[in-house]
Amino acid sequence: MFELIGIPPQALFGQLLLGLINGSFYALLSLGLAVIFGMLNVINFAHGALYMLGAFVAWFLLQYLGLGYWWALVLSPVAVGAVGIVIEKTMLQRLYKLDHLYGLLFTFGLALILEGIFKHFYGVSGQSYTTPDLFKGGTNLGFMFLPYYRGWVVVLSIAVCAATWYAIEKTRLGSYLRAATENPRLVQSFGINVPVMITLTYGFGVALAGLAGVMAAPIYSVNPLMGSNLIIVVFAVVVIGGMGSIFGAVVSGYLLGLLEGLTKVFMPEAANIVVFVIMVVVLLLRPAGLFGRER
């Protein structure tokens, strides 16, 4: 079948794997954005910079403390989440009663500040981060070569996305979070500290970005622009899935990553714009997104 269309199977499946890997990062980052917007109604444009911060924290831990990938996988999201909590408590909290535009402008400015600081000290050439020993090498599946670390990224991303969706949609804590976005006074009357819940939600959302940064470090170079190169696509993914839709963010992330990979096989020159073309079509046909709720 592949010979009929003139494409070697190794090339097709190789691009699908690359698309699935990209989709794993799209899903994780758009999941964090969807959590923050869905629970806080904040368009967090600093998400890409916090993704970059997660990768740099992993690099710092390795370079200066000798702590490898597995430590970074735990400590880096915690560190980024703590930064997010400080941002929310000291600055972002003041903007909740204002128009969404103020939150977007604030987080956009914050992203520029973070990127500028890291560019000043580290330039834009990028820092290398070694693949953990457990995942060095790969295996030949016959129709393609699968690097172990790429497979790990896909599996971990799916596990984190599934666990987050379950926690928000199927647990009591998730029901409290959803109720707090609709009627915070009612939820607070049951003895639940809504401001603390909102702060922790923002911290968790940006911690997902930090986790994605650690996972990306061995694949891409750790550099100050890695977030800005990705965040526009991730925002398009969130819009396609539906702003605030957890399920939509995850499903759209993986599907659009695979579609991007297929486009690189059949029409490489369109690979960089296919996500945005789909976004325009979805907005014309269904402004709330594929899985979003009409308001």
Please tell me about this protein's structure:
- The chain is an all-alpha fold.
- It has a single domain, classed as Orthogonal Bundle (ABC transporter involved in vitamin B12 uptake, BtuC), CATH 1.10.3470.
- Helix content is about 70%, strand content about 0%.
- It is built from 11 helices and 2 strands.
- The protein has a two-stranded antiparallel ribbon.
- Strand 1 and strand 2 form a beta hairpin.
- Helix 3 runs antiparallel to helix 8.
- The termini are far apart.
Give a brief rundown of this model.
The chain is mostly helical and 295 residues long. The protein is 69% helix and 2% strand. The model has no long low-confidence stretch (mean pLDDT 88).
How big is the Rg? 19 Å
Number of helices: 11
Quick one: how many beta strands?
2
Helix and strand content put the structural class at mainly alpha
Strand content: under 5%
CATH first level: which class?
Mainly Alpha
Biggest sheet, spatial arrangement of strands: 1-2
Do you know the CATH topology?
ABC transporter involved in vitamin B12 uptake, BtuC
The 3D shape can be described as globular
How many independent structural domains?
A: 1
Kindly state the percentage of residues in helix. Answer: 55-70%
Distance, first to last CA = 46 Å
Order of helices and strands: HHHHEEHHHHHHH
Average the pLDDT over all residues and give the rounded result.
88
The name of the CATH architecture is Orthogonal Bundle
Largest pleated sheet: 2 strands, antiparallel
Task: State the assembly state of the protein chains.
Answer: single chain
Q: Which blocks of ≥5 consecutive residues have pLDDT under 50?
A: none
